[in-house]
# Entry
Amino acid sequence: DVKVTQSSRYLVKRTGEKVFLECVQDMDHENMFWYRQDPGLGLRLIYFSYDVKMKEKGDIPEGYSVSREKKERFSLILESASTNQTSMYLCASSFAGRGTNEKLFFGSGTQLSVL
Amino acid sequence: AQTVTQSQPEMSVQEAETVTLSCTYDTSESNYYLFWYKQPPSRQMILVIRQEAYKQQNATENRFSVNFQKAAKSFSLKISDSQLGDTAMYFCAFMNPHDNNDMRFGAGTRLTVKP
# Structure
């Protein structure tokens, strides 16, 4: 089975701290994604990456950056955490290309609280 | 950009009965994929069912089936013989295979199955 692992299930940080959220997948997927989940808003795409060292902005990239140095790992970085970044963060991965049973595989999420 | 709308924030159903969750979307693409994901209290997103837009036949997975109306841009999920384990958040999602498999989600419907 595909496994997408997020390093922390719960995280509490202070305003202004630099925060790293790590995600690792074990299925050699080309695509990796970071979503933010908030009540009433569903999942919103922050950033995605379709290859090592490649990244694309999603719908809400402000205040975030990402790093993909290795194919299996995709990191989300909050340079200076703010209270409005308190949320559930979900990492996902998928194969690239068409006709490859396109779907996303998700991690279990990181609930981040910024105080 | 594609948008996905779920107009029912919450629904409930009695155990063993049938419930339908609605979803509409907006796109100018002719080929795309639609999904229903389930998120139980464990937070793990689970793929329930997947529909390819070029297939007219509605997808079915055991007790779960969809009513895909391409012209109306509607994609509803029917759950038959509801079980307590079906209690979860349900997200409708749209994927554009021409856009790095970028997936967009609705706001979600919280379904409660009552004994």
Notes: Chain B has a mean pLDDT of 93. Chain B touches chain A at residues 1, 4, 6, 9, 33, 35, 37, 42-45, 47, 50, 91, 95, 97, 100-108 (CB under 8 Å).
